[in-house]
Amino acid sequence: MRDDEFAAYVEQRRPQLFRAAWLLCADPHRAEDVVQAALTRLYVAWPRVRRADSVDAYVRRAVVNAHLDEGRRPWRRETAAGERLPDVPVPAATSALEERDALWTALRALPPGQRRVVVLRHWWGLSVEETAADLGISPGTVKSQTSAALAALRTALSDEPTDELTREVP
């Protein structure tokens, strides 16, 4: 019964877990490691986890913790993160593909803290309070990190020149 429930949960949620981990890591191979580490911990704790109020919240926290643990490993500091995107179906419109590629590039350019907040707030759809609880930071930090991240994404994805010296002050 335990294995069947766990397998069903993983089968349903693994693609979303991988995508979230990839957004946190910006490296598909490292994201696989993060998801695998989180699922290993989840399997061990599954009897307790399945009784929790929100299994998804527990799993999100496990993915974030696994990501943080992976970043602390000394051998991770010696290698650069890959630039390859995970394999995704090719959309029909070329412009949509270019927009998606630009978005992934802009997300990878964000500092890790801002990327974590954006992933939890906008990919997972969590509230400020849920994001703060999952990351172990204050709601104010979530708000400021979100604001800074969205401003950076707007700038990176803007078609307008970003030269501050040429802009007129109203």
UniProtKB/TrEMBL annotation:
Domain RNA polymerase sigma-70 region: 10-76
Keywords from the named record: DNA-binding, Sigma factor, Transcription, Transcription regulation
A matching Pfam family: Sigma70_r4_2
UniProt-listed GO biological process terms: DNA-templated transcription initiation
Recorded GO MF terms: DNA binding; sigma factor activity
CDD domains noted in UniProt: Sigma70_r4
Residues in RNA polymerase sigma factor 70 region 4 type domain copies: 101-153
InterPro entries: RNA_pol_sigma-70-like, RNA_pol_sigma-70_dom, RNA_pol_sigma-E_actinobac, RNA_pol_sigma70_r2, RNA_pol_sigma70_r4_t2, RNA_pol_sigma_r2, RNA_pol_sigma_r3/r4-like, WH-like_DNA-bd_sf
Entry's family note: Belongs to the sigma-70 factor family. ECF subfamily.
Protein's name in the database: SigE family RNA polymerase sigma factor
